[in-house]
Amino acid sequence: MLGESKINKNLAKKVYIETFGCQMNEHDTERMLYHLEEVGYSPSEKRDEADIIIINTCAVREKAANRLFGHLGNLKPIKEANPGMLICVGGCTAQNIGAEIQKKCPFVDIVFGTHNISELPGLIDQRIKGEKGICSIINDGFDYDLDKVKRISSFQALVPIATGCNNFCSYCIVPYVRGREKSIDPESIIKSIKEIVSGGVIEVTLLGQNVNSYGKDLDKDINFSNLLESVSDIIGLKRIRFMTSHPKDCSLDLVRIIKERDNIVKHFHLPLQAGSNRILEKMNRKYSREQYLDIIDNIRNSISNSTITSDIIVGFPGEERKDFEDTLDMVRKVRFGRAFTFMYSPREGTDASKMEDTVSLEVKKKWFSELLQVQNQISLEENEKFSGMKVEVLVEGKSHKDDKLLEGRMENNIVINFEGSAGLIGKIVSVRIVHVRTFHMMGELMS
After folding, report:
1. 312 vs 244, 302, 368, 426, CA distance in Å?
2. Cα torsion angle, 412, 418, 422, 424, sign
3. Which tens digit of pLDDT belongs to each residue from 364-419?
4. What confidence tens digit (pLDDT) does each residue in 341-372 have?
5. With 271 labelled, which of 213, 222, 315, 371 sits at a CA distance of 20 to 30 A?
6. Secondary structure (3-state) at 396
7. What pLDDT does residue 2 have?
């Protein structure tokens, strides 16, 4: 409990949070909002009107840190013009290089890590009292409470089921900034989802760095398939998504449950990362291209209307043209609905950062362009299968492309833009696809 010397709840204070990175970061922002609301802060839509600016950072790509310092540089004159404003940096980059942030940007008031979000009000109170140079980062911890969340949406919810990762892919910083895998108690998850569904939520996304390994650290007879089945039983829950899956843990039982349950979306995000067995081994991915294809065949043979999306890295240390050709071959064989593609960049502290980066930037860019060309054509062709079809769309809000249109998502996560009234936001409606593009579609509302 906050004492009398803590932040005064009666003061009308505003907080502005900029969030970068994955859906787990988005959920962390909702947690920050909850803890700050408890001590009198409310969200601000305008940065310059806020009493506190929080940058919730990502650390997956090298450019994320560079972008952070550039972003903080833009905030420096705002801080100089308003010394009473607090600037805070949290998230994965803060966890990874907190001391460097303090050194390069001494005007930042508070740096805090991924394991101690619940401490944020106390850190702010310390800064208000005059303590300077606050950096609170612990190497491991678990302060998740599923009830302590300020949800941004009234009809969609992000629900973490596990944090951290035990896989230690050689290129990935996540285990170092999120810690080892820790599963949240299944009873807590089910209780929380039942409560939010009773409050109007119709779509839930189950979150974890590797949801497929859920429960391995618990002293209970529970795995992700069991949990997904229990979540699916909750009355009133229309759609269940999950993110992210590791291919090595994608079980036959999981595919069976998804096939049998109407409210579990038929969308699998299975990061391939590379199509060459040699590179997959260097990445420490723990599966071969043949095993990955077996997983895809099982999904497609079991669920004919499934959509598979992926992540792919080009230019990994030691990668040669023949390895890249293997990746292109896999993309053509699997025919991903969409793939999130990246040029390799080293993350300090990972095993891959110690490998000789033998692929020039020029070659990386060339391969990246080739991969995009192949995948974008496949994405368009896969989308064209929906032309003229009637699909179910959850309306999320006004279109980002045209505020005169609405925007929603199909089960496969493809965005649909169509004409309709704002009263449809938060509802699942029937839409006929009238025009197909590579990354989104245009639809027509059906009566």
Report:
1. 14, 25, 10, 32
2. negative
3. 999 999 999 999 999 999 999 999 999 999 999 999 889 899 999 999 999 999 99
4. 999 999 888 999 999 999 999 999 999 999 99
5. 222
6. strand
7. 34
Which pLDDT does position 11 carry in this prediction? 53
Q: What is the 3-state secondary structure (H, E, C) of 399-434?
A: CCCCCCCEEEECCCCCEEEECCCHHHCCCEEEEEEE
Rounded to 5°, the CA angle 162-165-171 comes to 145
Averaged pLDDT, 15-30: 94
Contact 258, 264 (CB under 8 A): yes
Query: For residue 162, what are the β-bridge partners?
Result: 183
Q: Residues 347, 234: one domain?
A: yes
How many Cβ atoms are within 10 Å of 120's Cβ, its own excluded?
22
Regarding whether 95 and 38 lie in a shared domain, the answer is yes
| % residues pLDDT > 90 (the chain) | 89
Which CATH number characterizes residue 411's domain? 2.40.50.140
Phi, psi values for residue 25, rounded to 5° = -65, -40
pLDDT > 70: percent of the chain = 97
Please check whether residues 371 and 427 belong to one and the same domain: no
Instruction: Tell me the three state secondary structure of residue 11.
Output: coil
Q: In this structure, how many other beta carbons lie within 10 angstroms of the beta carbon of residue 390? A: 12
Size (the chain), residues: 447
Strands 156-160 and 182-183: unpaired
* Neighbouring C-alpha atoms within 13 Å toward the C-beta of 146: 23
Q: What does the alpha-carbon distance between residue 341 and residue 361 come to, in Å, rounded to a whole number?
A: 15
Domain that holds residue 164: 156-384
